[in-house]
Amino acid sequence: MDVGLMQMQRRLAEYTSALFKEGILDSQYVQLQELQDESNPDFVVEVVSLFFTDSEKLLNDLSRDLAQQNVDFRRVDAHVHQLKGSSSSIGAERVKNACIVFRNFCQEKNIPGCQRCLQQIKQEFLLVKSKLETLFKLEQQVVAAGGSIPTSGSLPTMQQPIL
Amino acid sequence: MDAKTGLLGGDGKISLNWREKVLGKIVKIQHRYDHLFGSKKISNALWRKLLYTWVFCATMFSLWIFLYMSSQAIEKRKETLASMCDERAQMLQDQFNVSMNHVQAMSILISTFHHGKSPSAIDQTTFAEYTKRTAFERPLTSGVAYAVRVLHSERAEFEKQQGWPIHRMDTLEQNLVHKDDFDPEVLEPSPIQEEYAPVIFAQDTVSHVVSIDLLSGKEDRENVLRARASGKGVLTAPFRLIKTNRLGVILTFAVYKTDLPSNATPDERIQATAGYIGGIFHIQSLVEKLLQQLASKQNIVLNVLDTTNQSHPISMYGSDEADDALEYVSTLNFGDPFRKHEMRCRFKQKPPWPWLAITTSYGFLVIAMLTGHIFYATVNRIAKVEDDYQKMMELKKQAEAADIAKSQFLATVSHEIRTPMNGVLGMLHMLMHTDLDVTQQDYVRTAQASGKALVSLINEVLDQAKIESGKLELEAVQFDLRAILDDVLSLFSGKSQEKGVELAVFISDQVPEKLIGDPGRFRQIITNLMGNSIKFTEKGHIFVTVHLAQEVMDSLDVETESSSKNNLSGFQVAERRVSWAKFKTFSQHERVCSYPSSTYDLINLIVSVEDTGVGIPFEAQCRVFTPFMQVGPSISRTHGGTGIGLSISKCLVELMNGEVGFVSIPNVGSTFTFTAVFNNGHSNLNEYTCQQMNNQSNSANSEFEGMSALVVDPRSVRAKVSKYHVQRLGIQVEIVSDLNQVLSSLKSRKPRIDMVLIEEEVWNNDSDLSILFVDQLRHIDQKVTPRLFLLAKSISSTRSDNVTCDTHSPAVIMKPLRASMVAACLQRTMGNMGNKGNYRNGEVSRLSLQHLLLGRKILIVDDNKVNLKVAAGALKRYGAELVCVESGKEAISLLTPPHSFYACFMDIQMPGMDGFEATKTIRDVEKSVNRKIQLGEVSAEAHGNVLNWHVPILAMTADVIHATQEECMKCGMDGYVSKPFEAEQLYREVSRFSYSAESRKL
Q1: For residue B358, how far is the Cα from the chain centroid?
Q2: What's residue B370's pLDDT?
Q3: Do B494 and A28 lie within an 8 Å CB cutoff?
Q4: Do B372 and B51 meet the contact criterion of CB atoms below 8 Å apart?
Q5: Pairing between strand B502-507 and B541-548?
Q6: Do B877 and A35 touch (CB under 8 A)?
């Protein structure tokens, strides 16, 4: 096997496992990857990019809502809920966790807390965005080099006694 | 007697009170008639009054009896006395009359022979002689004397003629002399009188009266005067007789010179008087003489009285010695109208006690009192029992209320605990995903596990409370029993492998493919029993068998050779049949045998879970099914659990019209057996649906159809289980007991053998033989050499790592065996599947799902585009055709019948209209359409030939908590899948609703 490809594959694997270790991604991402097959080759990329655009829009909405004088917390909460839902579907764990904290503040109607959280979410979002974009690039390189993308699932799930 | 009168007095008062009370009560009765309690009390009081009346009446009656009987006795006594008295009086009178007549006759004699003849024919001697000889004629007289009338002018001549002077009597009367001293010579001569009546003749007995002037005696004078005036016999009052000094009566007749006419005047009579004859009646001795002639003289006391003077009766005879107050008076007629006599009779003894009357009345009283007492005791007893009953009813009500309160309390508390627990679990889940070191993660995991355990426990408690309050209802949906058991098996497979315990399920071929019942609850029972078994079993096996009750009964007598050798693991087991020995189903053997529905409509299943665990101590066996009971406190510490599972299972089994029983031997094992009644899934559904269902669940295995396999196992029971699972894949199975037989059958048999399944035990027993066997297998001349599989029960014991990868080195199939899992292993090893994808977890479910969802049109509702996409992606993998919408309103418009959606997955939390609301609206719309179809307003054809519209709606939520699930059910959703999708869960939910959906179709 091509040494370069192997290296690339190793880098990809390392990068992916690092993402899991840092808690940026969770098992949901693996499941997402499993949904991708021959009939639907770009599924992950499609979903993730949908997530990016959707989230950016939501974050803008949130910034605008919080900047208003009378903050409509119901609206804010709905937005955060949306964001939480999509981030958990993607497996962007840290974004999701930040959303949970945000919602707590939202319930307390704590505007400074919300502001702080919003900043944190934005950061986490940017982080996961850049990480995933890098990941996709690496994967594209591997595919371009003729390799296959291993699913990053070394994660234990069901105990299926198959050797 | 005294006691009786006392009673009587008391009764009298009581009766007065009673009267008033009864009057009062009657009014009250009318008032409270409808009042249960009131009327009961009143009837009680009424009984009491009745009793008092009874006692009173009985006493009165017995008193009456006494009085009546004693009066009868007295009356009888009186009659006796009267008859005796009359008899005596009559006799006395008769005798007297006889005497009197004779004396009268003598007067005529004297008149004739003394005065009529001259000289007289009678002298004293003649008279004495005559009277003596005729004394018998005058039984009552002691003597007779004749006195002649002498005028004063004639006195001297008379005295000279007779030779004695006329003596006077009154001095004699004044100084009474003793009879012995009587001497007529000492008597004073009579003073000068107008006329005299000296006695000239006398009977010998009274000869002393001769010469005495009768007119000088007071009594005699009166007598003489009366007698000559009346011409009849005249009696004196009784007086003391001269000489004898005894009481006597003198009867006097006048003797006339001429025969006078009967109507002569007294003056004429006096003129004609010549003399007087007197008879002396000595009454006392005479009466005694008379009475001696009669019997029973001694019983009666007689008094004869002269009652001429009413106020001063003169006693003629008798004494006052009698005590008896009873007296009878009979009058005596002695022929003298001037004199009145009577006879008074009395009994000598006092009347005897009227014993008969006393005993009779007393006896009656005693009987009546006893009756009253019995009555009283009975009424009291009834009242007491009624009171007790009331109390019991009250206590029962209280107990029931307490029980309901307890259940409600449990339900409320459980619910209240669950809500915060959701928060705890959620937070723990989030905490898991923060930066934690290993120890912290361990802590969090433990906390989460504990929380989950708590939630499941609370759910159990809720179940229990629901069952107790009767709110639990069983579903009736079609389900596949085998699939459920496979599911449960997979749940415990990890644990059993860990422990090295052999876990197996065997379902009889006679059990139908599809049953109708409550799969969830059935699963709960099985899970409970198996969970218990696996908890307490460290070695040996756990064996679940499902048979038709009919089948077991038929084989009950045949299957006797079952011994410890012939079971799953070779360990001793508690005899399974004992556990159902008490079942009614079997005790009524005859009836069940003729149970026609067991083959037709109703399926009576008998399920046994047999383990070789620690068993239940005998003393604890009686409370196994009591809620919250465990064998001992140490058990819950070592093994956990609440002890509620078995009680819930028992309730559930009873809801399924079944029975549960067990047998357990400490340190040998326990066997739990239950029966449950289901409907046959084939009986009322059209064949097409069933066919389809079968295809769906089995088509995954269709590629093995027609293959054949050999199972090598010396234990027939275990081999049967292996055979059962492999056969489910459509593979022909034959059982042989050792490897040599495999070779021989491989050589001899015409049809090819595709695979050989070898029990691990056989393989490990003799490794040389195994190697030899593999070697020989290679040299067998066949087109396709059979594949080898090892059936292993635990990870540690497999030696697969050492075996080099070779077609002839056996692949390992882990127990517990399940058809799907076996299929997966076979597919992987045989490599003859079209699908090259490597099988990861849940791939079997995925295959099944594919068959469930392939080509189905499914609606996904989620406001979150990303989620929508992911869900769509997930479902698309199973071949479903997807429609995605982003709001509940769109979903409603799409799901308004008629439509062609197979199912709908709906997010719960959506802005605008959330999932619950949307579902409710959809259900309402469906309901109205269904009604219209039923009423015929809209033709079914226009609505896709569906009579009953009900599109399955599954909630999608990240909320893992039970309460949400309940809420989902409440608003008409059919199920619940957590996000992110998990193939197993998805499969479970989809298959569940697809059964119910199928059963709803035409």
Answers
A1: 44
A2: 93
A3: no
A4: yes
A5: parallel
A6: yes
Does the beta carbon of B836 lie under 8 angstroms from any beta carbon of chain A? no
**Range B395-467 classified under CATH 2.40.10.10:** no
DSSP string covering B914-942: -HHHHHHHHHHHHHHHHHHHHHTSS-GGG
pLDDT tens string B554-576: 765 544 444 445 566 667 776 66
- Provide the 3-class DSSP secondary structure of residue B682: coil
- DSSP output for B346-369: EESSPPPP-HHHHHHHHHHHHHHH
How distant is the alpha carbon of residue B790 from its chain centre? 66
Residues of chain A contacting B839 with CB distance shorter than 8 Å: 162
Average of pLDDT values for B48-67?
A: 89
The architecture (CATH level 2) of B708-797+808-829 comes to 3-Layer(aba) Sandwich (3.40)
Q: Which residues contact B610 (CB under 8 A, 6 or more apart)?
A: B541, B542, B543, B544, B545, B567, B573, B574, B576, B669, B670, B671
Query: Minimal CA–CA distance to B979: which of B883, B853, B870?
Result: B870
Q: How far apart are CA B660 and CA B544, in angstroms?
A: 15
Query: Do A23 and B979 make contact, defined as CB atoms within 8 angstroms?
Result: no
Per-residue confidence at B306, pLDDT binned at 50, 70, 90?
A: confident
H/E stretch holding A4: helix A3-21
Scanning B111-151, the segments in alpha helix (DSSP H) are 124-133
CA distance B911 to chain A (A): 7
Q: Which of A40, A96, A163 sits opposite B873 (nearest CB)?
A: A40
Amino acid residing at B820: S
The pLDDT of B523-538, averaged and rounded, is 86
Report the 10 Å Cβ neighbour count for B381.
10
- Is the entire prediction scored with pTM above 0.80? no
* C-alpha to C-alpha distance for B1002 and B999, rounded to whole angstroms: 8
B 417-436 residues inside an 8 A Cβ radius of A: 430, 433-435
**CATH 3.30.450.350 in chain B, residues?**
90-317
CATH 3.40.50.2300 residue ranges for chain B: 708-797+808-829, 857-992
Q: What is the dihedral of CA B353, B357, B363, B365, to 10 degrees?
A: -110
Residue whose entry in the numeric block shows the structure tokens 């899991």: A20
DSSP for B13-33, please give it: HHHHHHHHHHHHHHHHHHHHT
B603-640 pLDDT, tens digit per residue, is 888 898 888 888 888 888 887 887 766 666 565 555 55
- What whole-number distance in Å separates Cα of residue B48 and Cα of residue B175? 83
CB of B906 within 8 Å of a chain A CB? The answer is no
The answer to whether B224 touches B214, Cβ cutoff 8 Å, is yes
What distance in Å separates the CA atoms of residue B782 and residue B749, rounded to the nearest whole number? Answer: 11
Interface predicted TM-score (ipTM) of this complex, two decimals: 0.79
Write the residue in B839, B866, B876 that is nearest to A162 by C-beta: B839
**In which residue are the tokens 């949906």 written?**
B477
Instruction: State how far residue B815 is from chain A, nearest Cα, in angstroms.
Output: 8
> Looking at residue B591, what is its pLDDT?
41
Q: Which distant-in-sequence residues (6+ apart) come within 8 Å of B888 by Cβ?
A: B861, B906, B910, B912, B913, B914, B915, B917, B918, B921
Of B434, B873, B909, the CB nearest to A47: B873
Asked if B433 lies within 8 A of A54 by C-beta distance, the reply is: no
CATH level 2 (architecture), domain B473-554+566-586+600-630+643-680: 2-Layer Sandwich (3.30)
Residues 776-815, chain B, touching A (beta carbon < 8 A): 795, 798, 800, 811-812, 814
Strands B273-281 and B247-256: antiparallel
Question: Mind listing the pLDDT tens digit for each residue in B279-291?
Answer: 888 777 777 777 7
Concatenated DSSP letters of B421-467: HHHHHHHHHHHHTSS--HHHHHHHHHHHHHHHHHHHHHHHHHHHHHH
